[in-house]
Design brief:
The chain is of the alpha/beta class and 315 residues long. It has a domain of 143 residues: Nucleotidyltransferase, domain 5. It is built from nine helices and eight strands. It has a five-stranded mixed β-sheet with strand order 6-5-4-7-8, with helices on both faces. It is elongated, with a radius of gyration of 22 Å. The N and C termini lie far apart (47 Å). The model has no long low-confidence stretch (mean pLDDT 91).
C-alpha cells in the first residue's frame, strides 16, 4: 500500500485525529486556560459552520481546535493538504518548489509559498546541546551562494557579493546546524563555534585561516588542505571534511536545481529545512513517514504570519 493512501491524507476528520494524536499525545489541552479536564468534542457540521476537530473546554467554556497556537492557526487550508505538504517537503531530499507544491495541492503559488515557509518554521529546532559533547569530531565549513540584492556591479573574484553560511556537522549524532552570516571573518566564525561546539570536541576544517585561532579553544583541531588536493589525511582517516562537503552537495543541488533563487532574508528558513532533513535522514534510521511526524511535532508555538514571513530575521 502506498504511503499516500493513508486516510489522514484524504479524510479531514482522520487528518485532525492524526494531528491531535501527535500534538496532544496525553489528551487535549485548552489553549485559553490550560485546562485538561472536561474537554468535549463538538460534532462537525459544515452546513452549520461547525469545524472539524472543534473542542469545548468545560472550565473556561472556550472553543478551540488543535490548529490554535501552531503554524496551522488562521489557515483555511484543509488539514489533509497541510499533511500532504509536510510529507512532500520532508520526503524530498533536495526540496520541493512552491510552484510544484501549488500544482500538486491545487492551490495558488502565493498559498504554496506561504505554506512552505510555515513548514520550514516547524522544521527549525531550538536544540541547545553543543556538538561534540562526548569528545567526538565536529566538521565545520563555510559556503558562498547566490548574490546579495542591490549591490550593483562587482569585480570578478571574491565573495563580498554572495550570501554566506557556516555549517557544523556532529559526526557522532549526524546532526547539522547552519548559521547565515552577514560577514564571514574570524570573529564571526569564532562566536558561532564557541556557542555551538563543546570544548572537548575535535574540530575538523579545511585550511582556511578562519579557523586557526578559534581552533585552539577545542581539544583538537585538524585541517585538510584542499589546495593540495588533500581531502582525507591518509595517516588518520578521521581527519576530513567530506561529511560537511556532502551536506553542501545536497544543499547546492537543491538551491540551484529546485529553488533556483532565494532572497537573503529567507535564507535562514531554507537552511533550517536542509538541516532538518539531514539531521533526520534514512542513514540515521529515520524514514520519510517518521521524518514527517517529527516535523509535525515542531508546529506548536511557531505561528508565522504572512507579514513576518517576508521580514529579515532579527540579529
Amino acid at each position: 500500500m502506498s504511503v499516500l493512501s493513508k486516510p489522514y491524507f484524504h479524510d479531514e476528520q482522520a487528518a485532525f485525529t492524526f494531528v491531535e494524536g501527535i500534538i496532544w499525545a496525553n489528551g487535549p489541552v485548552c489553549p485559553h486556560c490550560g485546562g485538561v479536564e472536561r474537554i468535549t468534542a463538538i460534532k462537525p457540521n459544515p452546513e452549520k459552520r461547525v469545524r472539524f476537530g472543534l473542542k469545548k473546554c468545560g472550565q473556561c467554556k472556550g472553543q478551540f481546535t488543535v490548529r490554535m497556537g501552531t503554524i496551522f492557526e488562521e489557515s483555511k487550508l484543509p488539514m489533509t493538504k497541510w499533511l500532504q505538504a509536510i510529507f512532500l517537503m520532508c520526503s524530498s531530499k533536495k526540496g520541493v518548489s512552491a510552484h510544484q507544491l501549488g500544482r500538486t495541492l491545487e492551490v495558488t503559488y502565493k498559498t504554496a509559498w506561504f505554506l512552505a515557509h510555515r513548514i520550514r518554521e516547524a522544521m527549525r529546532t531550538g536544540e541547545l546541546a553543543p556538538f561534540g559533547g562526548q569528545g567526538g569530531a565536529v566538521e565545520a565549513d563555510e559556503a558562498y551562494i547566490g548574490r546579495k540584492k542591490n549591490l550593483g556591479p562587482h569585480r570578478s573574484g571574491g565573495a563580498a557579493h554572495k550570501m554566506k553560511v557556516l555549517t557544523l556537522i556532529d559526526r557522532e549524532t549526524g546532526r547539522a546546524h547552519t548559521t547565515v552570516v552577514d560577514r564571514m571573518n574570524q570573529v564571526t566564525v569564532a562566536a558561532i563555534l564557541t556557542a555551538n561546539v563543546a570544548k572537548e570536541a575535535r574540530l575538523m576544517t579545511d585550511e582556511s585561516p578562519l579557523y586557526k585561532k578559534v581552533g585552539k579553544e577545542f581539544a583538537g583541531h585538524d585541517a585538510v588542505h584542499h589546495a593540495r588536493d588533500e581531502y582525507v589525511r591518509y595517516s588518520d582517516l578521521t581527519i576530513t571534511t567530506n561529511t560537511v562537503e556532502g551536506y553542501f552537495s545536497i544543499f547546492k543541488r537543491g538551491m540551484k536545481g529546485v529553488y533556483q533563487h532565494c532572497a537573503e532574508k529567507h535564507l535562514h528558513r531554507y537552511m533550517a529545512e536542509y538541516d532538518f532533513r539531514y539531521s533526520n535522514r534514512v542513514a540515521l534510521g529515520i524514514d520519510d513517514v517518521e521524518r514527517a511526524e517529527i516535523a509535525l511535532k515542531g508546529v506548536v508555538g511557531k505561528r508565522l504570519t504572512y507579514q513576518r514571513a517576508g521580514e529579515r530575521p532579527q540579529a
